[in-house]
Design a protein that fits this description.
300 residues, Rossmann fold, GMP Synthetase, Chain A, domain 3, 2 domains, 7-stranded mixed sheet, 25% strand, globular
């Protein structure tokens, strides 16, 4: 039998390049919130892939963007800090680029500083012609000696094994850091918060910006009258101003009910138990500058 390999793989890229979609594809479970918005991922989320001869621990980082608040600064620090300890870096870019933009150039500089073993992943190849893809590969290959270059579509499962095989090939021998049954080191409470926030981002569209965060106040398991396990979850969605609160709640509470219903269905699927979810909305105007809250988003 081959010797067992293991390692930490950091996924980095600009906002909206498809990092969360890719990590969910690779892990095969829903560990990262997916919404087509800037700053969907705020913390470094670990997803775990157990293969016959390896264990790969993925760290999905917040997208690189221009910081405007303490929260933004913390998110970018988290992304760059995670490069230092990575065994392999997956640098995700979009196939639709025809030059190295400011955000990607900044990431490249950090990769060069760390001399990181990096696989360049070019996402959304279905949107471009082969000639422009080859030009893009040439452009980036002049900038850094990448371990491999893999063009993909992050929402197409046929690329999953291609990426995982390349990662495994480049890992060193090592132990399994997590139990074989685990696929994330996030707690159920964190997963519940992520799920509610993702649903809110999806249905609110551009009406409410990313000025929301979710806190699960209560999470308790009990048996219902039929003897089935059920989780009672109570969560608060915090927003920045009163006008946002009205939008999140919606007419006759319909928007909040919709968010809750979608989140509950997802959680029941992920947790494998029934969920009784109650949600509230509160205004906390300065939360993005509040160190106690922002510190939750630091790399642990």
């Amino acid at each position: 039998m081959e010797n067992f390999k293991s390692g930490f793989v950091t996924l980095i890229g600009r906002t909206n390049v498809g990092k969360s979609t890719l990590i969910n594809l690779l892990v095969g479970e829903k560990v990262a919130a997916i919404a087509n918005k800037v700053q969907t991922t705020r913390t470094a989320i670990r997803g775990i892939v157990n293969r016959p001869n390896s264990q790969i621990i993925f760290i999905d980082t917040p997208g690189i963007h221009k910081p405007k608040t303490k929260l933004n600064e913390t998110m970018i620090d988290t992304s760059f800090t995670s490069l230092k300890d990575a065994d392999i870096v997956l640098f995700l870019i979009e196939a639709t680029s025809d030059e190295i933009g400011r955000g990607d150039a900044r990431i490249l500089e950090k990769i060069k500083e760390e001399r990181a073993k990096t696989i360049l992943i070019i996402n959304k190849i279905d949107l471009v012609k082969k000639e422009s893809l080859l030009k893009l590969i040439e452009l980036y290959s002049k900038e850094y000696d990448f371990t491999a270059v893999i063009p993909i579509c992050a929402n197409n499962s046929k690329y999953r094994e291609v990426v995982l095989d390349e990662i495994e090939k480049n890992l060193k021998e090592g132990p399994a850091y997590y139990d074989k049954e685990e696929y994330t080191d996030q707690t159920m409470r964190q997963l519940a918060e992520e799920t509610i926030r993702e649903k809110a981002l999806k249905v609110l569209q551009d009406e409410v910006p990313h000025g929301i965060y979710v806190e699960v106040e209560k999470m308790k398991e009990r048996k219902n009258k039929k003897g089935e396990n059920i989780y009672d979850i109570e969560a608060t969605i915090y927003c920045l101003r009163n006008s946002h609160k009205g939008i999140i709640i919606g007419k006759n509470g319909e928007m909040l009910k919709k968010i809750g219903r979608m989140a509950r269905i997802d959680m029941e699927e992920n947790f494998g138990v029934k969920v009784n979810l109650k949600t509230w909305v509160k205004v906390k105007e300065d939360w993005q500058e509040n160190a106690n809250i922002v510190n939750k988003f630091k790399l642990q």
